[in-house]
Amino acid sequence: MEANTAWFGSILLLLLVFAMLASASADSGYGKSQLEGYAPPKTTPKGYVAYEKPNPKVPTKPVTPKGYVAYEKPNPKVPTKPVTPKGEYVSYKKTDPKLPSKPVTPTHEKPLVPEVPKHPKNIAVQGLIYCINGSKLIPLKGATTKVTCLAVRKNGYGSTSFSFLSCPADEKGYFLAKIQSSKALKDDAWEITECKAFLEKSPWASCKVPEDTNGGLTGARLTFSRHLNRDGYCLSSVGPFIYNPGHASSPSEGY
């Protein structure tokens, strides 16, 4: 047993010596610190070409290749004045019409209408006849008028008169009277100087009292203003003429 103890002590002593040696080596810089400064010798194998990193020079100005034609942007000159083409050219001039300061009345050629003679030979009279009932005017259908004219001889000696009736008024109360002087006067030695129109007759028993409105009783003097047609009749307009019931009752006709 003593022998085992001695052997065990020897092993511990040996381990202690190794530990001391390892500590001394670390303090003296032996081992890793020496390997850090070691560099293997550089040897170049035969046929080896070192690789050089390309470093191309970037041109500071653009390089124009040979045979290159530079493009020029067209810059046409705009003429300051209009160019007149050669040849037969008529320049256009802008019209600037002057506006009239006053309204211009258009002139129309008047149709060739024969003038109304001072002493007409053929007479035509037109007008309207009504029956008044309160504030209403009712066309008096069937009523008639009489036209009386005065004629004198052209030599100034002698005078005469003649009368003629109108046709009955229509449903609107309109009447027309016409006569040719050659039928009323025997020869051409007479001239008509004046004519008047009067109320003649009403067909309504309930509206037959004539009024002197517009000369219905005293006579409406004829004024010939225009020709009726190509037959030579000179037209005059009169009225309207009025009849009234003459009492409070309303007329029974015309409704």
Measured distance between first and last alpha carbons? 174 Å
Estimate percent helicity. 10-25%
Q: Main sheet, how many strands, which sense, barrel? A: 7 strands, mixed
**Segments where pLDDT lies below 50 for 5+ residues?**
248-255
Element-by-element helix/strand order: HHEEEEEHEEEEEE
Mean pLDDT: 76
Shape descriptor = elongated
Percent range for β-strand residues: 25-35%
Rounded Rg = 70 Å
Structural class: alpha+beta
Helical segment tally? 3
Q: What's the total count of β strands?
A: 11
Describe this protein's structure.
Helices cover 14% and strands 26% of the residues. The protein has three helices and eleven strands; from the N terminus they run H-H-E-E-E-E-E-H-E-E-E-E-E-E. It has helices at 2-28, 32-36, 181-184, and strands spanning 122-133, 136-139, 144-153, 159-165, 174-180, 190-201, 209-210, 220-221, 226-227, 233-237, 241-244. Strands 1, 2, 5, 7, 9, 10 and 11 form a seven-stranded mixed β-sheet that branches. A hairpin with a 5-residue loop joins strand 9 and strand 10 (233-237). It is elongated, with a radius of gyration of 70 Å.
Task: Please sum up the structure shown.
The protein has helices spanning 2-28, 32-36, 181-184, and strands at 122-133, 136-139, 144-153, 159-165, 174-180, 190-201, 209-210, 220-221, 226-227, 233-237, 241-244. The chain is of the alpha+beta class and 255 residues long.
